[in-house]
Amino acid sequence: IRDRPKPKPKPEPKPEPKPEPKKPEPKPEPKKAEPKPAPKPKVDEAKKKAEREKVERERREALKEQQRRELENALSEDEELFQEQEDVQAATTYSQKIRRAVSLAWSRPPSARNGMVVKLRIRLIPTGELVDVQVIDSSGDSAFDRSAVRAVQKVGGFPELKELEYRVFKEYFESFVFEFRPEDLRR
Predict the structure, then answer these.
(1) Among candidates 54, 37, 34, which has minimal Cα distance to 46?
(2) How far apart are CA 168 and CA 121, in angstroms?
């Protein structure tokens, strides 16, 4: 008979670990209803429309401003042109007065002939008083030239120039060329 192997002793049962107290599992929070995103296309369209309107409004304002400036410039240019025309007219009037005064003060020399012209540089101060007179282009006849210079010196000044605005005086009469050409000479 065969020997049977001896049964192995059974291991002693290990004491079972005490179960740890179970922590209550956190309850899942109920999902909050997420707000539905506003339809972006409408917001984007509204923003784009507002931006386009703003740009268009700024463009119109810039255009109006440019038109206003152009109108002001045009008016300013018209005023300047008008003022210039008035200045030229005043200068012409006073030039005629100067010519008449010099002609009346002139004594004709025996050698004077029709067609003679002498150019004089006349310098005045704003009161119209004569500062200097010089021949700058002779007629070729020294007696005629001297008679023209003496006529201007005899007049001595043109007090009516005091009535002119200073800028007109400065531009036209402070220093100017005077062509003396008596037209009433007999041949």
Answers:
(1) 54
(2) 18
> What's the pTM value of the predicted model, to 2 decimals?
0.56
Spell out the residues 6+ positions from residue 113 whose beta carbon is closer than 8 angstroms to its own: 141, 185, 187
CA 184 to chain centre: 52
With 0-12 / 13-18 / 19 or more C-beta atoms within 10 angstroms meaning exposed / middle / buried, residue 158 is buried
CA distances from 148 to 14, 106, 155, 183 (A): 151, 7, 11, 13
The single residue listed with the structure tokens 């956190």 is: 26
CA–CA separation, 94 and 117 (whole Å): 20
d(CA 173, CA 157): 11
For position 78, what pLDDT does the model report? Answer: 77
Q: Which residues of 130-155 are buried (b: 16+ CB within 10 A; e: fewer)?
A: beebebeeebeeeebbebbbebbeeb
Q: Distance between CA 169 and CA 153 in Å, rounded?
A: 19
Please state the separation of Cα 54 from the chain's center in Å.
28
Mean pLDDT score of the chain, rounded to an integer? Answer: 83
